[in-house]
Design a protein that fits this description.
- α1 crosses α2 and α4 packs across α5.
- The chain has 6 helices and 6 strands; from the N terminus they run βαβαβααβααββ.
- 25% of the residues lie in helices and 16% in strands.
- The protein has a 6-stranded mixed beta sheet.
- It is α/β, with parallel strands linked by helices.
- β5 and β6 form a beta hairpin.
Length: 246
């Protein structure tokens, strides 16, 4: 068996009587079609040309997992790239519209840099706006959080004790982190979620307790090689830089 065919190593033990449902979140590959603009729920494609990145991601994902992706094509393209790079293709992948990116309404299509330059610095949310401030004609981050939480609760119950690989978006994964932090959506916004990164959140449940464990956030198994810096795409208010490490 080659190294890339070996299953992942379970590094975190689970006590007797506890059911661990492990969520492996993968953010989609970078979007090149946005022309520097905010895209939110616009259904844009993504760049899956860097095979090394997808090989690296596949090496840390579990086999025999349940796969789910949002309804936006960039998540499906990212999953296809992971499979094309050698990860065993699953029998199927569910589509979950609740895992779509935040709908940014009238902000979608605006120049990203100009938008944030016009925003008051006291926003301090690490996102497009404070969590309860909806985009005109769209959602707030709290709206996103609530729909993501509902889907996570439902899918965790349906697939209790299994590994779930969810290919989604920066805002979606920040919402999931906020849930794992004890239902604190604003705290999830403090985390950076890079393209193609892997975030693992374990839901632990027993007869008398349930909660979350966070083994890793924004894991990028290819990052040591600077030749892959182009795989970076801003998430939220971040503006693109020459290097992911800067």
């Amino acid at each position: 068996m080659s190294n890339k065919d070996k299953p992942f190593v379970v590094q975190h033990s689970v006590p007797d009587g506890v059911v661990a449902t492990r969520w492996w979140w993968v953010r989609h590959a970078p979007v090149r079609e946005d022309n520097g603009c905010i895209y939110g729920q616009k259904d844009l494609g993504c760049d899956t040309s860097d095979r090394v990145v997808f090989e690296a991601v596949g090496k840390i994902l579990p086999r025999d997992a349940v796969w789910v992706a949002s309804n936006l094509k960039r998540t499906h393209q990212t999953a296809d790239a992971i499979w094309a790079a050698g990860f065993p293709r699953p029998v199927g992948m569910a589509q979950e519209s609740a895992f779509a990116e935040q709908h940014l309404g009238e902000w979608q299509g605006l120049n990203r840099a100009a938008f944030f330059a016009s925003r008051p610095i006291e926003v301090g949310s690490y996102w497009f706006a404070p969590i309860d401030d909806p985009a005109p004609g769209g959602e707030s981050f709290l709206d996103l959080y609530n729909r993501v939480k509902g889907a996570i609760d439902r899918i965790s119950a349906e697939h209790a004790g299994k590994d779930i690989i969810a290919v989604a978006h920066g805002g979606t994964i920040k919402a999931a982190v906020g849930l794992a932090l004890g239902g604190q959506p604003a705290q999830g916004l403090a985390f950076t979620i890079d393209n193609c990164s892997v975030t693992r959140l374990d839901h632990l449940a027993s007869a008398g307790h349930s909660g979350w464990r966070i083994p890793m956030v924004n894991q990028q198994p290819w990052i040591a090689d600077a030749s892959h810096n182009a795989m970076h795409q801003p998430a939220g208010p971040e503006i693109a830089t020459a290097s992911k490490l800067a």
